[in-house]
Each structure stands twice: as structure tokens, then as C-alpha cells.
Amino acid sequence: MNNRLLREQVAQLDQHAPLGLIGTAINALILVWILRNQAPQTHLMAWLAAVLLVTLLRLPLLYRKIPLFSGPDSTRRLAVFLISGAGLSGAAWGSASLIIFPTDSIVHQTFMAFVVGGMVAGAAGLYSVMMTAFLAFSLPVLIPLIFRFLAAGDEIHVAMGGMTFLFAVLMTFTAKRIHATTINNISLQFEKGDLIVHLTEAKEETEIINRELASEILERKRVEENLKRHKEQLEEKVAERTRELSFTNQRLQQEIDERTRLENELLQAEKLKSLGLLAGGIAHDFNNLLTGILGNISLAKMETPAGERLHDTLTESEKAAVRAKALTQQLLTFSTGGAPVKKRMFPADLIRDTATFALSGSNVRCRFDLASDLWPLDADEGQISQVINNLVINAHQAMPNGGTIRISAENLQDGADKPVTLEQGNYIRITVQDQGCGIPEEHLSRIFDPYFTTKQTGSGLGLATCYSIIRKHGGCITAESKLRAGATFRIYLPASSAPVAKAREPEHVLPAAGGRILVMDDEEMIRKTICAMLIRLGFSVESVHDGAEAIAVYQAAREAGSPFQAAIMDLTVPGGMGGKEAASLLLQMDPEARIIISSGYSNDPVMADYRDHGISGVMMKPYTTQELGAILNNILGERGKH
User: Is 287 part of a structural domain of the chain?
Assistant: First the structure.
């Protein structure tokens, strides 16, 4: 098993090598170009030559021709070579912090940190199949940069060094997650292969038995010829035995076919489960990172006067962080979500953005017809985005030669034409229509069934997921199609019971009143960021790292006569009491407690049904200072009305 695993790891490293080498060369050229006026030309050229030389030596076209790496026993030697190549490349990149470090420009220093961090993030995906290769590359890359920042001694450089160190730790944990999932998938592939071998051997044994039985029948016929007086009796017995054997063979084949089908479904489910866990874990960690990034950017914006160049730069950075938040939502398309976390939303922008993102870079166009007065929804933005994404991707795959997808959205007042299964009320109808090959009539009744698909690839869960999500939102989804005339999907979602006009979020949201806020999160970076945001909003803050400490601090504050006006708690604390358990105990202690649950990603039902648990609000990471101020305004404002 260990040798097989090592061979597969080396094969994947070898397969990913060209992509990593191309990225290395391009990033090196970009870095040298950007630093052309910040470092001596001789240093730049020497460093670039070293990086390109190491990249050239690592080309698969070269080392695959070396007999040392092509024999049957060459796996370990090739593994050592690939790990050494990763380490040598990491050392070359790490030397950039020593040779071409732009000492006089913090902007260029930040750019260098961005490039180096991007290389390490890329290595987490390419090299994590073998953690030794990832560490051999990432540690020589990041350690010199960290020490270079710390050696500067001033506050900003020390902070940059600390953030780079934190990034290194988080990337290492992320790589370990990817490594564990990859090794698990490889093991599943091995198990599948072993099972196929076992079934093949069983089939061969069955064939041997059949041949032996056939031989026995022939022997019986020969005896019948010698014993003519028993001919009819023996022929009848042989015929009866043959019928029994035929029936047995049919049953055996049916059992083999059924077992193969069940094993394929089980394997598919395990793969999807692994992919879901991976996507959910990455999204959780990435959203935690984005919380620190987006929160600090919004704080910096509030400290910078509008109109200044720095303010515009921070605005662009904030937009980029928000786009990164959207990317994590795309990751969650592959994960298994729970009940929808509903909030008031206007679907037009979500429909347009999701469809445009899904079709980016394709030869398919999208034509929108969205009502300008479209009613708002109480829905989970991520899950509705997933439905639109799945339908648009299906439409795109139905038109391999290009075409136009038409997406419309309109209001349906109570009493309008809609499926009879829907309850009375106002609805929004979203229609997705393609010009593809269409769906055969005999398949229309099954397209929403799990694992049903007519395509060569795919899991068969896309439309089943859409159906489940829409039903959880109190709506329904229908499909119409004719062969060679395209397909039309219609989504019906209940409109919000209290339509409101879409309002622009103000630039600065200040709380209605100050007070004391308790912050609980197991990650120090996030605690510091949230505390800074709350202080900027005019609150005094105390932070703790888990639920048990939060309960103790909250009780002590009440007994001292200086209670907290609200508590912000992380839902999940590895190895400790999380926000859900702590909130339950706090509400027993203080039924009037105002508690906000925060999470990077969770399918715990408390996120959707938080009011049933006595929780005042939820916030999905990441969020800005303005968004934090808005929810505190709402919660503390409600308290002031009682």
C-alpha cells in the first residue's frame, strides 16, 4: 500500500509540475519588471536567471529522459528529486527577500509579499499531495521574508511580518487538509481497483464452474448412449438440471449487476462527501481570513477622508475582498448545506451576477429580462445563487456550439397562474430558457431524481439539489422541453411579506448608542479585528477565546454592575465550547441577553433558525465595519423599544 501510495503521489506531483513551473516563470518575470527601479539591475538579472535555471532543470521533458528516474524502482529517487526541486525553487524565491528586497518602498514590499504569498497558496494546491514537497517549497520562501519584515523594527513592518507568519501557518493547515483529502481519495481509488479484481476473479471462478457443469452434462449424455433403456429418464433429468443452472446463472448475473450498481452509487456518494467536506473546510478557513482582511480595510477607509487617493485604493481593495467572498460561495456549491439562512434580498442583481459568472469565458451569451420593480425575497443568497448557477451550467452544456440563454424574472400577484401545489400569496417567477437539444419526454419526470443523468459525466445531483433548495424556501421548480427545441425551467419563490424599496447602504454606519460588547472567537486575528471595528463604532470591548470564558466574563460583568449590551460569538470553537452552547447558557443566566452568532461556514440549523434558539442575529463571515454597525443598530434599537 505504501509503495502504491508513493507512486500515485509522485505521479500527481509529476502531472502538476508543468503548471507550477509556468506560474513560477511568469511570476518571476512580473516581479522583476515591477522592481526594475527598486533594486540593482545586476541583482535582479542574477536572481531571475537563478529562478529560470531552477525552473528549467525541473522540466519534466528533461528529467523524464534520465534513466535514473525511468526504471521500475525509480519511484523513491524521483520523489527525492521532485522534493529537492521544490526546495531549490523555494530557496530561489526566498532569496528574493535578501537580494532584491525593495527597502525604500513599502508598496513594492507589499507587492513582493503578495507575489510570494500567491506562490505559497498555489503550492498548497499543487504540492499538498506530498506535504514534504509543500514544506520544502513554502518554508524557504516565507521565512526570509518574515525575518526581513521583523528586522525592519517599525510597527508596520512588524505587523507585516506577523501577518506573513500567520499566513504561513494557515497555508500549512490548509495544505494538510488538502493532503488528507487527496490521500483519502487515492485510497478509495485503490479500494475500487481491488474490488474490480475481486469481482473479475469471482466471475472467472463462475465460468470454471459452468465449464465443469457442461462437462458433466456431456458425460451424462455419453452414459445415456450406453444405457439406452434409461435414455428418456436421463434426458429429462439432464434437461431439468440445465434449466436450474440457467436460472441460477441469471440470478447470479442479476446479483452481480445490482451489487455493481450499488457500489458505484456508494463510491459516487463518498466522493461527493469528500469534496463537500473539502469545499466547506476551505470556505470556512478562507472566510476567516477574509474577515480580518475585509474588516481592517473597512476600518482603514473610515480613517481616510473620501476623495483621497488612499481612500480610492482601499475602496478597490474592499471590492476585491468582496469578490473573494463570492468565490468562497462558488466553493460551497460543492458542499452539503443545511437549512437556508434567510435574509431580505433583492434577487435581480444576484441573478445577473451569478449567470454572468457561470458563463465567463464561454461562447454562450445571456439575455436578461428582469422586472425593474421585482419584489424582494426572504431567502438564502448562497443557495439561490447555487440554483441559478446549476441551471445556467446545464443550459450551457446543452449548447456546446454556442447560443443564447434567456433569463427573466417577474412578479406574480396572488391568484395569478402558477402551479397548484403552491400556497396562496405573491410569488416571483424566474425563468431560464436555452436553445439546446432539449430533454426527451420520457426523462422529464425523472430529471429531479438524485443520481439521474443522461450525460457521460456529472454526478446527477445538480437538478436534485435545485429541487431540494427551492422546496426548502417554500417554492417549486418545473421543467418543460421538446427535443431539438431547448428546455425551459421555471422557479417560483414566495415574495417577502413586507416589500421595501432597495436602499443604498450608507458609507458610515454608526450605532444608535455606545455600550459594552463581549467578543468570543478562538482565532486571535479575528478577535483583534472585530474589537478594532467595535471600538471604531464607539463601543468598549472585551474579548475571550471560547464559550466557557465568555460565560465567566459575562457573569462577572453583571455582578459588577457593568453588564454587556451584546455578545458576538463564533459558532464553532475546535476543542472548546462554541457559540451555540454558550448562547444557551447565557440566555438561562440572562433571558434579555442580545447574542449574535458569527460563522465562516456551517450547516448547523441554528444559523437558519436562530430566533428559535433565542439568538438575536447571525452574521456570515466576512463582513465590514458598516455591516457590523448595521446589525448592532438593529439589535440594540429593538432592545431600546422594549
Answer: no
Structural domains counted in the chain:
3
- What CATH number does residue 619 fall under? 3.40.50.2300
- Which element (helix H / strand E) includes 89? helix 75-94
Phi, psi of 542 (to 5 degrees): -135, 135
- Residues 471 and 612 both lie in one domain: no
Lowest mean per-residue pLDDT among 75-84, 284-293, 536-545, 633-642: 633-642
Judge if pTM exceeds 0.70. Answer: no
In the structure, what pLDDT confidence band is assigned to residue 409 with cuts at 50, 70 and 90?
A: very high
Residues 66, 173 share a domain: yes
Distance (Å, whole) CA 411 – CA 376: 10
DSSP 604-624: -GGGTSGGGGT--EEEESS--
Contact between 625 and 536 under an 8 Å Cβ cutoff? The reply is: yes
What CATH number is attached to the domain comprising 378?
3.30.565.10
* Domain that residue 384 falls in: 345-494
Distance of alpha carbon 620 from alpha carbon 599, whole angstroms = 5
Q: Does 355 fall in a domain?
A: yes
Q: What is the mean pLDDT of residues 338-348?
A: 79
d(CA 388, CA 381): 11
Is cis: bond before 622, omega within 30 of 0?
Answer: yes
Q: Answer for the pair 526, 291: CB distance below 8 angstroms, yes or no.
A: yes
Distance CA 402, CA 392 (A): 13
DSSP code string of 211-237:
HHHHHHHHHHHHHHHH-GGGHHHHHHH
Are residues 366 and 489 located together in one domain of the fold? yes
Neighbours of 574 (CB within 10 A): 7
pLDDT value, residue 585: 93
Boundary residue ending a domain (184, 199, 217): 184
452 pLDDT tier (thresholds 50, 70, 90): low
364 forms beta bridges with 403
Query: In this structure, are 551 and 437 located in the same domain?
Result: no
pLDDT in tens, 75-100: 777 778 788 888 898 899 999 988 89
CA 259 vs CA 253, 262, 397, 450, 578: distances in Å: 10, 5, 31, 19, 43
What cell numbers appear for 440 in the block? 426527451
- Asked if 97 contacts 145 with a C-beta cutoff of 8 angstroms, the reply is yes
- Rounded to whole angstroms, the maximal C-alpha distance in the chain is 115
Grouping H, G, I as helix, E, B as strand and the rest as coil, residue 595 is strand
Last residue of a domain, one of 156, 184, 212: 184
- What number is the average pLDDT over the span 40-48? 91
Residue 16, pLDDT > 80, answer no
Least confident of 100-104, 337-341, 552-556: 337-341
Asked if pLDDT for residue 503 goes beyond 80, the answer is: no
Cell numbers at residue 10, please? 509522485
Please report, as a single letter, which amino acid is at residue 402: G
- Domain check: are 436 and 557 in the same one? no
Query: Are 429 and 570 part of one and the same domain?
Result: no
Distance CA(544)–CA(521), nearest Å, equals 7
Check residue 501 and give its pLDDT.
46
Number of other residues whose CB lies within 10 A of the CB of residue 79: 20
Q: Is residue 523 part of a domain?
A: yes
The answer on 538 and 489 residing in a single domain is: no
Record the cell numbers describing residue 134, joined without a space: 509543500
Same domain, 484 and 583: no
Q: Is residue 486 part of a domain?
A: yes
